[in-house]
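Input record (one chain):
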Amino acid sequence: MTVADEVLALFEAKGDEYYGEVVDQRSHALQCATEAQSRGAHDSVVVACLLHDIGHFLVEDATVQREDLSLVDDRHEAAGSRWLAPRFGPAVANPVALHVVAKRWRCTVDPGYHASLSGASQVTLVAQGGLLGADEVRRFEQSPGFEHAVLVRDCDEAAKEPGRSTGRLDDYVTLMERLAVTAITSGYPNSSHVNRVSR
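The corresponding structure, as predicted from the sequence alone:
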């Protein structure tokens, strides 16, 4: 099974699920990738956008967290980045690992940003730790991949529009396989070097 096959299998099993938003996970992922492409993002960021919420498919208590998003944080960004790192390397895994703290950062440095979030995103912000402290802001801003993580977050929020036209998951197979091969030939062995910011 190729890396792309693994991704497609996960979306086949879980892509029709909803996590509080008005669109299902497949539509959200495709809209996020489409938004990244429209902004001229690097290929690795496009794939990070496509797969930024794949951790929701991997956590065992996903049903519990859907029932009360304000109380339970499934840490999907950590689960997703751990799964992605050995397959795609840090260029894809790091923005995924940081996209939740990027939301917290945006709400901290731009108080008006909170009002632009979807209702579900406002609710999950509480469970995810809320606003950052001054030290956390500085640490995040100094993180490798900071700008890519913020771009993934911005595309994430723009990817919640029912009926928005996108491509299909199959359209990304060649890109995913190319990035996976690049990660392997670069000697990226495991997820031990994925960037982490304390929450």
